[in-house]
Design a protein that fits this description.
Elements: H1 3-12, H2 21-26, H3 30-41, E1 45-48, E2 58-62, H4 64-67, H5 69-87, H6 90-110, E3 115-116, E4 123-124, H7 132-153, E5 154-156, H8 159-178, H9 188-211, E6 213-215, H10 216-225
Antiparallel strand pairs: 1-2, 3-4, 5-6
Helix pairs in contact: 1-6, 1-7, 3-9, 5-6, 8-9
Zinc ion binds at residues 31-32, 67, 103, 107.
């Protein structure tokens, strides 16, 4: 799953409006942010196999440290605790924990039976990737719902908040649909490096336009109290 994970991040802004979108998008994608790093380190392995599933050309036969349920529960706890220590914002920490773990659930729905419960443990998958139309409908509907919740929970302060956000959405949709018409990656090395570069770019861009949007509830409180409620 790809933009379905972004959907979770955008949607969670409505639960933790003061948490920066950088954190909210990093959490549901943490598994896919760690994965290319672990591949580069040789801790995990992947094969390119055009026949693996109809949607994805990857044979994900070994990724226990980034993608098993047990590992994600552990990463979620580390991630939420670090966030809480830095910001002391409870709703954000709770939402981030669930968002990190949500990655397993969404990948379990889409992948074939390659999602481990724990390293070396049994692996499961509901194979939504066997249907290109089914995958795209599910992800695009999720993405639209996530964007709607984010747009409802925040308001642009300026043009960056409005057009930076719109350009980001367009970028992701073009990338998602364009990926359907491009072949599998030429080799594992290029897959690793594209993935490693892509994640920080997406997060910094989100952090940037999110700073130029204000949570709707904070706006009302600021108006009443005159105090500025920053994003954390
Ligand atoms: Zn994943």
């Amino acid at each position: 799953m790809f933009i379905g994970h972004f959907a979770v991040g955008f949607a969670s802004k409505s639960v933790a409006p003061r948490t920066s979108l950088l954190w909210l998008l990093a959490a549901p994608q943490l598994a896919d942010i760690l994965w290319p790093v672990f591949l580069a380190l040789g801790w995990e392995h992947v094969r390119i196999d055009a026949t693996a599933t109809r949607f994805s050309p990857l044979d994900l036969y070994d990724f226990p440290w980034s993608h098993s349920l047990a590992a994600l529960v552990a990463w979620a706890t580390v991630f939420a605790v670090v966030y809480w220590l830095v910001t002391r914002y409870g709703p954000g920490a709770v939402v981030l924990w669930f968002a990190v773990v949500s990655h397993w659930v969404l990948d379990w729905i889409t992948h074939r039976a390659d999602m481990p419960i724990y390293p070396g443990g049994p692996r499961y998958g509901l194979r939504l990737w066997d249907s290109i139309a089914g995958t795209m409908i599910v992800e695009l509907v999720m993405f639209a719902a996530g964007l709607w919740l984010y747009a409802r929970a925040t308001r642009p302060r300026d043009r960056i908040g409005r057009y930076g956000f719109a350009a980001y959405v367009l970028f992701l949709v073009v990338l998602y649909i364009g990926d359907r018409f491009s072949g599998p990656p030429p080799d594992v090395q290029s897959l690793i490096w594209v993935s490693i570069i892509f994640a920080p770019l997406c997060l910094v861009w989100a952090w940037w336009f999110d700073r130029h949007r204000i949570p709707v509830d904070a706006e009302q409180k600021e108006f009443l109290t005159g105090n500025s409620l920053g994003t954390v």
